[in-house]
Design a protein that fits this description.
This protein has 15 helices and 15 strands. With about 425 residues, the chain is α/β, with parallel strands linked by helices. It has two domains: about 250 residues, Aspartate Aminotransferase, domain 2 (3-Layer(aba) Sandwich); about 110 residues, Alpha-Beta Complex (Aspartate Aminotransferase, domain 1), CATH 3.90.1150. Strand 6, helix 9 and strand 7 form a beta-alpha-beta unit. The chain binds ligand 7TS.
C-alpha cells in the first residue's frame, strides 16, 4: 500500500469498526458537498489506486510483453502481479484463468463469441433471466440468433429472487449454457449461484456468473461457487475504468477460440493462417491496459486491508438505515424486497407523481448523485411494470449523514414539484 492510503491502515490498527470515518480521507473526490450515491454505476477511487496508475506512467511505462529491455520487463511484471492479485482475490486456481478485458460487458461478449458461437447449434438452449443487465442479455440474444439455439428466460419473483427449483425447472433438455447475475443491479437481490452452478452442471450446462454487482461487495470465491465463468469490472470495485476481468476454468478457456485477433495473442503467423499463444495471452489481443491493471491491483490491496467483515457490515448498516428512512416517507415505493438485508447496497425506488429524471435532477440541486432510468435492465422494468425508476446505491465510504441528506431531499420532492401534500 502506498503512502497515500495510510489513513485506513492507521484506523484499522486502532481497531476502528466503522470504516467511513477513516476511509473517506483516502478518496480525494469525496467532499462534504457531494453525496455520491451511485456506486452501482461506478465507485470512487482511493488515492492509492490513482497513485498506482500515475506511478505506472511515471516510472514503468513501456509496452508490456513486447520489449526485452528493463522498462518493458517492469511493465510486464506490474501487469502479471495484478493478474495474480485478482487470482487470489477470487480464489482462482491458476493465474492464466484470469483474462483482463475492458469491463463486464466485454467479458460476457468474449464468452458469447468464443464459446457460444462455437459450441451451440439448433436444438441447443441458452438460459438466462429477465433480471439481467443488458450486458448479460444481448450477447446471448446474438449467440442464439447466429447459432439457431433457443434462448429461455427465468422469471424472478417480485423481490428479484430466483429459486433453485425455478432454475432447475427452466433448464430444458439441451440447454448448454446458463448465465445469471449474482446480484441484480436494480433490486439488489442475490441469487444462490453455488446452487445454480451445481444444477447447471448436473444438466451438462456451462454456468456463467455476472459478478459486476457482487464482486465489489462480498467475498466471491470461484472455486467455492464452482462457476465456469465469472465476469466483473474494475471500475465498480474502486479500480480504474477500462479494466475488467473474465475468470474462466482453464480447461474451457484452453479449448476456446480467441475473441479478438492481432498482436500478442499468436504463437506463429503465416499468410495462410495462425496458431494461438497460450493462456492468458490468447485472449488479450493488442496492447493491454497495464496501468489499469496496476490500479486494479491497488484496489484489491485496499479491499484486503479493509477486510470483508468491515465492508459488508458498513454497507449493510447504510442500506438498513436508508430503507428504514425511506419507508417513513409517503409516496415512496421501494422496488424489490422490503427487507434491507436483501438489497446488497442497492435501493431502487419510485415517488408517486414524480418522474425519476426529476428525482435525479432535484437530488442534483442538493448535490446528491443518484441514478434514474431503466438501469440497462429494460426487460426487468417491463416485468415489474415500471417504466423508469431512481436508484441509490452505497459503498462502505458513504455516511449516515449523506443518507440523511438523501432522505430529507426525498421527503421534499413532491413539494418541490408543486404538490401540496
Ligand atoms: N452486469 C451488471 C449486473 C451490471 O450492473 C453492469 C453495470 C454490467 C453488467 C455492465 O458493466 P460494465 O462495467 O461493462 O458497464 N451496471 C451499471 C448500472 O447499474 N449503472 O451503470 C452501470
Amino acid at each position: 500500500m502506498t503512502e497515500n492510503c495510510r489513513n485506513t491502515e492507521k484506523q484499522m490498527q486502532r481497531g476502528g469498526s466503522c470504516p467511513a470515518e477513516a476511509v473517506r480521507k483516502d478518496f480525494p473526490i469525496l467532499t462534504e458537498r457531494t453525496a455520491y450515491l451511485d456506486n452501482a454505476a461506478t465507485t470512487q477511487k482511493p488515492r492509492c489506486v490513482i497513485e498506482a496508475v500515475k506511478r505506472f506512467y511515471e516510472e514503468e511505462n513501456a509496452n508490456p510483453l513486447r520489449g526485452l529491455y528493463e522498462l518493458s520487463a517492469a511493465a510486464t511484471q506490474e501487469y502479471e502481479d495484478a493478474r495474480e492479485a485478482v487470482q487470489g482475490f477470487i480464489g482462482a486456481s491458476f493465474p492464466e484463468e484470469i483474462i483482463f478485458t475492458r469491463n463486464t460487458t466485454e467479458s460476457l461478449n468474449l464468452i458469447a463469441y468464443s464459446w457460444a458461437l462455437n459450441n451451440l447449434g439448433p436444438g441447443d438452449g441458452i438460459l438466462t433471466s429477465v433480471e439481467e443487465h443488458h450486458s448479460n442479455l444481448l450477447p446471448w440474444q446474438m449467440a442464439a440468433k447466429k447459432t439457431g439455439a433457443s434462448l429461455y428466460y427465468l422469471e424472478p419473483d417480485r423481490e428479484g429472487r430466483i429459486s433453485g427449483e425455478a432454475f432447475r425447472a427452466a433448464l430444458k433438455p439441451g440447454t448448454k449454457l446458463a448465465a445469471v447475475t449474482q446480484v441484480s443491479n436494480v433490486l439488489g437481490a442475490e441469487n444462490d449461484i453455488r446452487l445454480f452452478a451445481e444444477i447447471a452442471h448436473e444438466a451438462g450446462a456451462v454456468f456463467v456468473c455476472d459478478g459486476a454487482q457482487s464482486v465489489p461487495h462480498m467475498k466471491v470465491d470461484v472455486r467455492e461457487l464452482d462457476v465456469d465463468f465469472l465476469a466483473f469490472s474494475g471500475h465498480k470495485m474502486l479500480g480504474p475504468m477500462g479494466i475488467g476481468v473474465l475468470y474462466g476454468k482453464k480447461a474451457l478457456l484452453e479449448e476456446m477460440d480467441p475473441f479478438l485477433r492481432g498482436g500478442e495473442m499468436i504463437r506463429s503467423v503465416s499468410l495462410d493462417g495462425a496458431s494461438w499463444a497460450q493462456l492468458p495471452a490468447k485472449f488479450e489481443a493488442g496492447t493491454v491496459n497495464a496501468a489499469g491493471a496496476a490500479g486494479l491491483h491497488a484496489a484489491i490491496r485496499y479491499y484486503e486491508k479493509l477486510g470483508w467483515d468491515r465492508i459488508t457490515e458498513a454497507e449493510r448498516e447504510l442500506t438498513r438505515y436508508a430503507i428504514e428512512g425511506m419507508k417513513k416517507i409517503p409516496f415512496v415505493k421501494i422496488l424489490g424486497s422490503p427487507d434491507p438485508e436483501r438489497h446488497n447496497a442497492i435501493v431502487t425506488f419510485t415517488v408517486e407523481g414524480v418522474h425519476p429524471h426529476d428525482i435525479a435532477a432535484i437530488m442534483d440541486e442538493d448535490h446528491i448523485c443518484v441514478r434514474a432510468g431503466h438501469h440497462c435492465a429494460q426487460p426487468l422494468m417491463n416485468f415489474l411494470g415500471v417504466s423508469s425508476s431512481a436508484r441509490a446505491s452505497f459503498a462502505f465510504y458513504n455516511t449516515k449523514e449523506e443518507i440523511d441528506r438523501f432522505l430529507v431531499c426525498l421527503g421534499s420532492l413532491r413539494r418541490r414539484m408543486g404538490y401540496e401534500d
